[in-house]
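> example.struct
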């Protein structure tokens, strides 16, 4: 989404800094701050650069993973969503699980991707994410965390191995 900057004079910013910041933080507006006709700075929503996830929750998630010795790499998507990448050995090749924490996590369920996955592998959504929470919203932000997501994803990987061996998904037909 492109940034559409509006001009904001330094005087207006000095007179009502809270109002300007609220417009940026709550309404997503962006400003170029000007003084005497010169552009000095810009104000943009933090979500343009960082995921919209509460820092305390994110810190707890990462600490829990460290305690469980879940080794991961972090990255940001083009949409500034946080991704955690986990490597796993599976059926003679490495499989990477990617847990994408969307803006608003944990109130919005994470998406999980596995790579590489054979073409036509079942129990995935149209975007390729794993169907680990089911069609109904099974994600519970108060009870679930990234550790639970990994457990569900690893159970999905076990189902994938069974499907590759037999053509049937354990516990039900292949989608």
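> example.seq
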């Amino acid at each position: 989404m492109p940034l559409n900057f509006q001009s904001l004079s330094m005087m207006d910013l000095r007179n009502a800094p809270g109002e300007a910041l609220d417009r940026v933080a709550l309404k997503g507006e962006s400003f170029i701050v000007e003084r005497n006709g010169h552009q000095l700075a810009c104000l943009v929503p933090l979500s343009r650069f960082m995921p919209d996830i509460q820092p305390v929750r994110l810190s707890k998630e990462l600490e829990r993973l460290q305690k469980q010795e879940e080794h991961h790499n972090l990255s940001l998507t083009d949409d500034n969503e946080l991704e955690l990448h986990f490597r796993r050995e599976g059926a003679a090749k490495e499989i990477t699980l990617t847990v994408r924490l969307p803006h608003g996590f944990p109130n919005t369920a994470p998406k999980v991707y596995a790579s590489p996955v054979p073409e036509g592998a079942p129990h995935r959504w149209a975007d390729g994410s794993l169907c680990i929470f089911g069609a109904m919203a099974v994600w519970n932000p108060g009870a679930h965390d990234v550790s639970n997501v990994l457990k569900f994803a690893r159970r999905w990987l076990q189902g994938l191995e069974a499907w590759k061996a037999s053509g049937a998904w354990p516990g039900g037909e292949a989608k």
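> remarks
Residues 55-166 form a domain with the Ubiquitin Conjugating Enzyme fold (CATH 3.10.110.10).
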